[in-house]
Amino acid sequence: MEWQFKTIARKSTLSGEPFIPGDRVLCLIYKDDAAGELGRADLRPDESEVFELPGAVLGRWSRVVKDPDDDSVSARETMASAEDFFFSLYDNEPAQAQEEADVLKHLLSLMLERKRVLRAIGDRQTSGEQTYLHVKTKREFKVPIVDVSMELMLKIQDTIGDIIL
Fold this sequence. Notes:
The chain has one domain (24-160). Strands 2-1-3 form a three-stranded antiparallel beta sheet. The protein has a three-stranded antiparallel beta sheet with strand order 4-5-6, with helices on one face. The longest helix is centred in the middle third of the chain and has 17 residues, at 75-91. The radius of gyration is 16 Å and the shape is globular. The chain contains three helices and six strands, in the order βββααβββα. By secondary structure, the protein is an alpha+beta fold. This is CarD-like/TRCF RNAP-interacting domain-containing protein.
């Protein structure tokens, strides 16, 4: 199964104004407390301070909008976004929405391990936590082992399928 990051939204979640090539966009993944689902907001950096999320931020990363005629997104940019998102899941640990954060940590760690950005330390765990080493920074992460059911996968894909496939 291939996991990859797709392109960002074409317009701001807050203002509805279209992004233009060269704009920096902040992408936020959050838990919508009222709906009980994951959500995504793509904002200009200055909008992030006034945008009111309906729940806890689980992760964030930023990207620069590319020209729509240029379909190529560099592998380096894609991996940097995945790494930023993964780090933010640990740097912004929410008190609530832990189950969703754990699933995202688990899925991203598998993708980053496959791309050799993370390396599993010790014996492969089938429950509890797996320790991973971020190769460049030597930072260690305890990643929860999550049983990803088809129902859970569909729920995540419905909400953030445009981020990770």
